[in-house]
């Protein structure tokens, strides 16, 4: 009672007033419609209605019925009381009338539905249906037949209803099956009705006629004639005066007239013939007119002339024959009369008793022709077109609005078009610019080429001169030489700024030159070495080509050396340098200051060496100022600018070097300053934790990125160059960054020097083709070589430089990024690829994909979940901290790395080929499909079916036929891999060997995958091993859920048994110093469970005496710890995030922990049927699932706790201890249950077996 | 005096009985209203001040009794969360209607032994109104054209063990559904919400 007043309950209170709809009602509309009229609600409804009406008039599309249809539906929903308020019937009539003649709608579902709605609303629907039938409306639709038959069924005329169903089926009404079903249901209902009731034949039509002059049973005391004079009220069916029949008919009374016997039951059970004659349709007023019309003198009767205006709803929709001219742009001030907010239905008004409506009549009369002498001069069709009347203003408003919308659309389109054009134009401009830059680049290139040639020549000359100089007594010659050289220099620089060559250069030039008469290459090497070994004299070689000349004058390397370096810096140069760099780094234990100091020393020496030349930048420019680049003069002047600018200005000194310009300069700087974190800090994303390896790559990569980012264009360098000259003060982001590079914090004065260093180094690295891509690549090359001492995979970088050795860093991501730098001249593409991997500054995670095979009933993710959101990194103990900070102790190699593994395999004491089950065939792997056959080592194998598939391998069930007897066959499992799985083969054999050596009481050799035969091809391998039909542990876990069905208590015994086995397997495996690497339920195959266990007290006896019930397979990911130095730990992460153990996810080193995590996860799946989800809370890792209450919770919790919370690599828990605890408990408490419970699980396993 | 007091006192067991009975009659009403079973197979019964229709079909009765007794047990343990009647078309296997009864258990009743106070009459009235609403729902529910079958789903606590005769199933939601909330009633120990979801007619 309390909550009756809620508006939501309105529907219930007014339920009697609500007309139920066949398709149901929208609840919101229902409630809204039932609400006592709220003003705004009413107006809203009115608005919507208005919308519909407008649409009706404005519609110019091809399907006018659509609007009517929607309007009808809306009306139905909005006026729950059966549409009276909304004039539903009228609307329906109008709609139907509108389209009555249109053939295309005759079988349109919507139209027919409207008919059916009308039928539902009217009293005598069967007439309507007959009319429809006659007019061939809806004959193709089941809904028509269905509705008609339902009506008839309600009336009791079952025979006719049945006939109609049949007719519909005959006509193949659509949807056919629906009609069929309804027919069947109808028949069932009829049958039920017949059976349950003992009524007389129900097919007596209710439209039973009264029989003429029949005798009726009298009713009541007064023996009055019954009101209902049909059916059972009749005493006899036969008409006529019965009394007469009793008397013998006097034959003489000739019956010369027949009493009209109208009592033959009209065959109402058959369908009336479709004659199409029903133009005039008998409705009630007409059929009943005999009873209703007043008798009168018929001579006086007249047919009344139809007078008066036609009711609005019967106005035809005929359009006037002419088109009304509409003047455009009429801007009349409109004061539209406001419609007052209408009230809803009038409360408490009496409704006139309605005349029996004849819907069909209304429909048919629509094409009544207007009186011939009248023609309406207004758009009658529009006004009366809808359900309601529309006023002129409304029509005009609608038209106007439409026009407005049109205009709006056009405007928008135009705008878009314009924008489009703009963009195109811009694009074109950019392209043109690009072209321009390219061209300029080319020009510069050529110039530089020419220049270099000149240099070379000159150097040659000079060298010869110098050699001659060796004659000690030729001082005069020296002088001459000097003159010559100076002259030559002058000549050489004749197109340059000769005044810029300070004379001291010459002297300096001579001195060192004499001392170094070695081949240019060596000089170059030395130069290179200088960098690492603090050799003074050649520092100056770090200059631009022009600078080289300047260097010459100040004692740089011989032209030849430069020449050589320019043409072909061999890989070894770079490698050596790189290695030395690395060694240097190691030797100096990564102390920044020292190294910076180290460099500083070098630079200092530089300074001393070229003291005089340090007049800003001018000194280094001279050579560069060769004629073609007169423009440099101007920029030279500009150089007296604050150091911030100097950086990039330097760079633009040598336009020919700009190709190697900002990009390479920065990189070379980075090479030199790889340890200077400040220089790298421009991006700021790099953390200090990074090892140096990655710093280099990252910085170079980043530099590349910022260069590329700034200019999303090709020809970036030239573009920058332009920018440099025009706006040197760092208007561009890149310049600021360049400036930062240029002016290193600890040596601001030497910005110039540094830059010149850059120039030279970049020159040295560059070949004669100063291809930016190439240069970039070479820088990176150097850098990356420095990175790791481990082997790495090579990629696209090598493509562009054939001579460089392919040692590249191996991270997939970084590779991609670098590759894109070099490979792509579309630098904008490169940008997106360049990613920083700050967190992953440790080793690369590239591994084989870990497979995730089945996961049937496992509901959540297909893998374990480690929730690190609440993870608080623990205070690392000393050892781990050391491990983390010192790059040496952590094995930088990725244990999953294929090259590492290959290395191991090559160094085996016994080569693989000596193994008895090893077969190597020097051909391509045969194609394996179900049904195919292959021959290995003389034995025939038949491929039966595919058992499973993973990322890199497929496992098939094969059967080997015995040689002599093709009927006998033995089943095996064959693992087919597209890369020869030698490692797996080796590990499996190795495990067997080591286990044998352990010689334990409980023999676990049967619990490890045994390879019967391994066959290796060029491009793949087969590994043939025993076939186990019981499926994997995952299958078992899934099937077991059904077996246990809520009785977890019993489940414990089996699970504990399996857990003990699992613990044992992993324990022994680790004892052999092998990490499996991928412990998961898919990788454990089930064998038969022992059917019964003897009751013994001793665990060892018990387990030793039983056969193993599980096999651990898939050792492709395994790690042999004996191959690594002791105390090695790994930081690599498995590639797929889902299979990482806790240590991997929290960036801690790991060894055996990964197996223990996998073990915990597998046990979890066994128990709960779902993958494990762990999270950290207050320093402890816990799993989200809680153990069944009926189990020995403390023991199980201890297990999980131990496996998930391993403090460090030195404190790997001893599985034996855990196992023994479990064994004890098992024997003490659960053993007796085993036998009975085991049966259930065997059945489950049988199910699995049958599937296989 | 004492008699009236005890009459108004609701124990956990009593509440369970009431709710289970409601479910029984409620399901029967739904089956009748929606035409899942032919109307001739129903007979009248007086309850909650209304004339309700219950089935006479033996098999159906047996099934319902089994289910209800199981639900009673769960109600007693306060492990049941919802009861759902899913009405599905036989031919297309599409879920057409979904009646959902949410059960909220007041857990404190498990511990305290003192019975609660609420008059049976009042509860009866509340239940009656819910059942009346079910009947009235015909105003907006779409007509079920085809032959339908029904399913009973029970939402329980997660770690409840599934009894033998029952299986696990999905929620059987209706896509694109219109939902209507009906009344709730409470026995002070159990509170039951009713809701019906049906396909939008578009």
TrEMBL record, chain A:
UniProt name for this protein: Mitotic checkpoint serine/threonine-protein kinase BUB1
Coiled coil residues, start to end: 395-434
Region (Disordered) residue spans: 1-27, 274-294
Domain named BUB1 N-terminal: residues: 52-211
Organism: Potamilus streckersoni
Annotated Protein kinase domain residues: 941-1252
Keywords from the named record: ATP-binding, Centromere, Chromosome, Coiled coil, Kinetochore, Nucleotide-binding
Ranges annotated as biased composition (Basic and acidic residues): 1-15
GO biological-process terms attached to the record: meiotic sister chromatid cohesion, centromeric; mitotic spindle assembly checkpoint signaling
GO CC, alphabetical: kinetochore; nucleus; protein-containing complex
Binding site for ATP: 975
From TrEMBL, chain B:
HORMA domain sequence ranges: 13-196
One Pfam family linked to the record: HORMA
GO cellular component terms attached to this protein's record: kinetochore; mitotic spindle assembly checkpoint MAD1-MAD2 complex; nucleoplasm
Domain of life: Eukaryota
PROSITE patterns: HORMA
Keyword Cell cycle: yes
Residue ranges of the TM segments: none
An annotated GO BP: mitotic spindle assembly checkpoint signaling
This protein's UniProt keywords: Cell cycle, Cell division, Mitosis, Nucleus
Classification via Gene3D superfamilies: HORMA domain (3.30.900.10)
Record's subcellular location: Nucleus
PANTHER family in the cross-refs: MITOTIC SPINDLE ASSEMBLY CHECKPOINT PROTEIN MAD2, MITOTIC SPINDLE ASSEMBLY CHECKPOINT PROTEIN MAD2A
Family assignment from sequence similarity: Belongs to the MAD2 family.
Protein name: Mitotic spindle assembly checkpoint protein MAD2A
Species of origin: Potamilus streckersoni
């Amino acid at each position: 009672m309390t909550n009756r007043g809620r508006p939501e309950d309105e529907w219930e209170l007014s339920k009697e007033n609500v007309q139920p709809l066949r398709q149901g009602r929208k609840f919101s509309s229902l409630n809204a419609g039932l609400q006592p009229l709220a003003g705004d609600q009413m107006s809203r409804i009115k608005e919507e209605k208005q919308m519909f009406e407008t649409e009706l008039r404005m519609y110019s599309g091809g399907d006018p019925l659509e609007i009517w249809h929607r309007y009808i539906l809306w009306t139905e929903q909005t006026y729950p009381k059966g549409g009276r308020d909304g004039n539903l019937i009228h609307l329906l009539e109008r709609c139907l009338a509108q389209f009555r003649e249109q053939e295309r709608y005759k079988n349109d579902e919507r139209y027919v539905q409207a008919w059916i709605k009308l039928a539902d609303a009217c009293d005598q629907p069967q007439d309507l249906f007959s009319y429809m039938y006659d007019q061939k409306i809806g004959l193709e639709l089941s809904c028509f037949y269905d509705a008609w038959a339902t009506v008839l069924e309600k009336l009791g005329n079952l025979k006719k209803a049945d006939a109609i169903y049949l007719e519909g089926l005959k006509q193949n009404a659509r949807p056919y099956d629906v009609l069929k079903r309804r027919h069947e249901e109808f028949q069932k209902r009829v049958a039920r009705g017949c059976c349950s009731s003992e009524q007389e034949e129900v097919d007596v039509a209710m439209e039973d006629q009264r029989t003429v002059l029949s005798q009726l049973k009298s009713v009541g005391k007064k023996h009055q004639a019954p009101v209902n004079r049909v059916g059972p009220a009749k005493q006899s069916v036969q008409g006529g005066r019965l009394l007469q029949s009793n008397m013998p008919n006097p034959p003489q009374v000739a019956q010369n007239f027949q009493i009209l016997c109208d009592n033959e039951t009209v065959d109402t059970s058959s369908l009336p013939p479709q004659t199409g004659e029903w133009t005039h349709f008998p409705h009630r007023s007409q059929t009943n007119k005999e009873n209703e019309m007043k008798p009168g003198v018929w001579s006086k009767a007249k047919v009344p002339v139809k007078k008066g205006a036609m009711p609005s709803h019967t106005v035809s929709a005929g359009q006037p024959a002419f088109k009304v001219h509409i003047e455009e742009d009429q801007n009349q001030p409109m004061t539209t009369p406001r419609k007052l907010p209408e009230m809803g239905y009038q409360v408490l008004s009496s409704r006139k008793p309605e005349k029996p409506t004849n819907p069909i009549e209304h429909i048919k009369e629509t094409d009544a022709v207007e009186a011939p002498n009248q023609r309406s001069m207004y758009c009658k069709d529009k006004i009366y077109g809808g359900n309601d009347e529309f006023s002129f203003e409304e029509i005009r408003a609608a038209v106007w609005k439409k026009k407005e919308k049109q205009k709006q659309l056009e405007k928008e389109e135009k705008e878009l078009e314009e924008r489009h054009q703009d963009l195109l134009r811009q694009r074109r401009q950019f392209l043109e610019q690009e072209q321009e830059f390219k061209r300029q680049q080319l020009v510069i290139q050529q110039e530089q080429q020419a220049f270099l040639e000149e240099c070379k020549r000159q150097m040659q000359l000079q060298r010869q001169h110098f050699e001659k100089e060796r004659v000690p007594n030729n001082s005069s010659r020296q002088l001459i030489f000097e003159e010559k050289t100076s002259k030559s220099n002058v000549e050489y620089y004749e197109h340059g700024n000769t005044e810029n060559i300070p004379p001291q250069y010459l002297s300096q030039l001579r001195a060192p030159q004499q001392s170094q008469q070695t081949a240019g290459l060596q000089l170059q090497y030395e130069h290179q070495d200088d960098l690492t070994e603090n050799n003074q004299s050649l520092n100056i070689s770090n200059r631009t080509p022009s600078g080289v000349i300047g260097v010459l004058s100040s004692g740089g390397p011989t032209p030849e050396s430069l020449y050589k370096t320019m043409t072909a810096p061999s890989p070894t140069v770079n490698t050596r340098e790189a290695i030395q760099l690395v060694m240097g780094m190691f030797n100096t234990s990564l102390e920044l200051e020292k190294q910076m100091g180290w460099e500083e020393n070098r630079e200092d020496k530089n300074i001393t060496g070229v003291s005089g030349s340090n007049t800003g930048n001018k000194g280094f420019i001279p050579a560069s100022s060769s004629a073609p680049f007169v423009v440099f003069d101007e920029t030279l002047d500009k150089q007296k600018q604050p150091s911030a600018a100097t950086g990039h200005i330097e760079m633009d000194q040598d336009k020919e070097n700009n190709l190697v310009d900002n990009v390479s300069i920065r990189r070379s700087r980075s090479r030199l300053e790889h340890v200077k974190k400040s220089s790298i800090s421009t991006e700021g994303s790099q953390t200090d934790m990074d090892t140096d390896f990655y710093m280099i790559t990252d910085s170079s990569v980043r530099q590349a990125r910022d260069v590329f980012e700034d200019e999303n264009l090709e020809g970036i360098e030239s573009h920058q160059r332009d920018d440099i000259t025009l706006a040197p003060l760092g208007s561009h982001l890149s310049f600021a960054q360049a400036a930062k590079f240029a002016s290193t914090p600890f040596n601001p004065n030497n910005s110039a020097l540094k830059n010149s260093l850059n120039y030279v180094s970049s020159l040295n690295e560059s070949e004669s083709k100063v291809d930016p891509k190439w240069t970039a690549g070479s820088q990176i090359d150097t850098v990356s070589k420095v990175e790791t001492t481990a082997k790495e995979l090579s990629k696209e970088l090598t493509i562009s430089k054939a001579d460089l050795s392919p040692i590249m860093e191996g991270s997939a991501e970084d590779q991609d990024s670098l590759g894109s730098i070099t490979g792509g001249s579309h630098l904008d593409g490169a940008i997106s690829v360049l990613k920083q991997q700050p967190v992953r500054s440790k080793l690369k995670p590239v591994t084989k994909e870990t497979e995730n095979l089945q996961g049937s009933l496992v509901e959540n993710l297909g893998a374990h979940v480690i929730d690190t959101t609440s993870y608080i990194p623990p205070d690392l103990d000393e050892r781990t901290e050391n491990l983390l900070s010192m790059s040496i102790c952590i094995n930088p190699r990725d244990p999953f790395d294929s090259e590492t593994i290959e290395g191991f395999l090559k160094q085996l004491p016994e080569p693989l080929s000596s193994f008895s089950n090893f077969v190597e065939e020097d051909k391509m792997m045969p194609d394996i499909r179900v049904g195919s056959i292959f021959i290995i080592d003389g034995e025939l194998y038949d491929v039966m079916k595919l058992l499973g598939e993973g990322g890199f391998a497929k496992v098939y069930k094969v059967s080997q036929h015995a040689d002599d007897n093709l009927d006998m066959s033995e089943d095996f499992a064959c693992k087919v891999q597209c890369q020869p799985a030698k490692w797996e083969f080796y590990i499996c054999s190795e495990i067997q060997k080591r286990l044998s050596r352990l010689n334990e009481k409980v023999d676990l050799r049967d619990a490890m995958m045994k390879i019967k035969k391994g066959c290796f091809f060029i491009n793949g391998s087969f590994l043939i091993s025993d076939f186990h039909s019981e499926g994997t542990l995952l299958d078992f876990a899934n099937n077991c859920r059904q077996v246990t069905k809520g009785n977890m208590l019993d489940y414990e015994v089996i699970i504990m048994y399996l857990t003990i086995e699992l613990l044992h397997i992993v324990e022994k495996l680790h004892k052999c110093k092998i990490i499996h690497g991928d412990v998961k339920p898919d990788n454990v195959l089930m064998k038969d469970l022992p059917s019964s266990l003897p009751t013994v007290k001793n665990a060892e006896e018990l387990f030793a005496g039983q056969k193993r019930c599980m096999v651990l397979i898939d050792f492709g990911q395994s790690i042999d710890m004996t191959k690594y130095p002791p105390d090695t730990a790994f930081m690599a992460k498995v590639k797929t995030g889902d299979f990482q153990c806790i240590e991997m996810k929290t960036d801690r080193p790991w060894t055996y922990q990964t197996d223990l995590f996998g073990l915990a996860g597998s046990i979890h799946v066994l128990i709960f049927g779902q993958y494990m989800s762990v999270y950290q809370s207050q320093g402890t890792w816990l799993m989200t699932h809680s153990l069944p209450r009926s189990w020995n919770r403390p023991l199980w919790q201890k297990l999980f706790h131990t496996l998930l919370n391993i403090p460090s690599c030195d404190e790997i828990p001893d599985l034996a201890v855990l196992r023994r605890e479990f064994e004890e408990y098992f024997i003490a408490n659960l053993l007796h249950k085993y036998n009975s419970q085991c049966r259930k699980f065997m059945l489950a396993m049988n199910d699995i077996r049958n599937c296989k | 005096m004492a008699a009236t007091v005890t009459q108004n006192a609701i124990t956990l067991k009593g509440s369970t009985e009431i709710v289970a009975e409601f479910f029984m009659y409620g399901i029967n009403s739904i089956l009748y209203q929606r035409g899942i079973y032919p109307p001739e197979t129903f007979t009248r019964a007086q309850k909650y001040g209304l004339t309700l229709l219950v089935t006479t079909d033996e098999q159906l009765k047996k099934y319902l009794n089994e289910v209800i007794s199981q639900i009673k047990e769960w109600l007693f343990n306060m492990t049941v969360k919802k009861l759902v009647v899913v009405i599905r078309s036989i031919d297309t296997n599409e879920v057409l209607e979904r009646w959902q009864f949410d059960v909220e258990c007041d857990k404190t009743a498990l511990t305290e032994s003192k019975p609660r106070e609420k008059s049976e009459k009042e509860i009866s009235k509340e239940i009656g109104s819910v059942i009346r609403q079910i009947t009235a729902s015909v105003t907006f529910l779409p007509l079920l054209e085809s032959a339908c079958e029904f399913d009973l789903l029970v939402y329980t606590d997660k770690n409840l063990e599934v009894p033998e005769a029952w299986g696990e199933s999905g929620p059987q939601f209706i896509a694109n559904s219109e939902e209507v909330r009906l009344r709730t009633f409470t026995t002070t120990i159990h509170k039951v919400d009713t809701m019906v979801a049906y396909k939008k007619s578009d």
